[in-house]
Amino acid sequence: xxxxxxxxxxxxxxxxxxxxxxxxxxxxxxxxxxxxxxxxxxxxxxxxxxxxxxxxxxxxxxxxxxxxxxxxxxxxxxxxxxxxxxxxxxxxxxxxxxxxxxxxxxxxxxxxxxxxxxxxxx
Length: 122
Description:
alpha+beta
């Protein structure tokens, strides 16, 4: 499967799932690792993995905007989107969870602002 691969202004790459199956495959590659992963606080979002173990704050914020821009929350509401930011080591999968669904521990929250998402989507 070919994930979306987006290059940030800094040159860092972000891998973005296109559907539940890709989210499943993408996250399984990074469970237990130190990479930062993002997902909206609401269901219906791609998982986005920053392919850099030490991204700066600007890279994390830019990645959050990308995650928000591809989310159902943005599609349906066109307003600021809350993004969860966590490391691969804080993800778990239980047997009863459907494809593309994971649990997370210790998420940080980032607000992707409407104006920034609109610029990304242009």
